[in-house]
Design goal:
There is one protein chain. The protein is built from six helices and four strands; from the N terminus they run H-H-E-H-H-E-H-E-H-E. It is an alpha+beta fold and 189 residues long. The protein has a single domain, classed as NADH Oxidase (3-Layer(aba) Sandwich).
Length: 189
């Protein structure tokens, strides 16, 4: 078993993948493990969509790009403005041509839902790293608004996609970037 400190250091945001699928049984294991994450009031609000179809991955990437560009035009100070050149590039794939996408969603009405999903996503990414897989949380991939696409994915109008995670066998694992020391506001003994 891998040492926990080593596992934390091994988990990187991977954006370059080998062109080979991740076996469904491994994906199911990761999904079972990530549901062990804590959730407020033990609500366990997470819902999952697994996409391994290349055409669907491209379709979702193109939809996310169009959605974000519309948001930029409506709100010129939108966070995605810094990605505008990428979003306008027809060859840019929001999901970096990864072989697998996991969308983790929760009910929009649940105030703690995004926090619960974030914990499940962290468990998922650590589980992936423990197996030698790469993953990356792709915030740009959460913009899935078209009702027909959402319905085909099994998402209801009351669901929000919080954590789009790409998964695959890394072609390259980036080095660990510098980390800031913890900013401890106060330590009360």
């Amino acid at each position: 078993m891998i040492d926990f400190q080593e596992l934390l250091a091994r988990r990187r945001s991977v954006r370059q993948y080998e062109d080979r699928p991740v076996a469904p049984d491994i994906i199911h294991e990761l999904l079972r493990e990530c549901t062990l994450a804590p959730s407020a009031g033990n609500t366990q609000p997470w819902r999952f969509v697994v996409v391994q179809n290349r055409e669907w991955l491209r379709r979702l990437s193109d939809h996310s790009k169009a959605c974000l560009l519309a948001r930029i035009e409506a709100h010129p100070n939108h966070f995605a403005l810094r990605y505008e050149a990428y979003l306008r590039d027809p060859d840019f794939n929001v999901f970096y041509d990864a072989p697998c996408l996991i969308l983790i969603a929760c009910p929009k009405a649940l105030k703690t839902g995004p926090l619960d999903v974030a914990l499940a996503a962290a468990y998922f990414m650590l589980g992936a790293a423990a197996r030698g897989l790469g993953s990356c949380w792709i915030g740009l991939g959460a913009c899935i608004e078209a009702p027909d696409i959402r319905a085909e994915l099994g998402l209801t109008p009351g669901d929000q996609v919080v954590a789009p995670l790409i998964l695959g066998y890394p072609r390259e694992v980036p080095a660990t970037p510098e980390r800031n020391a913890p900013q401890i506001l106060k330590f009360i003994n």
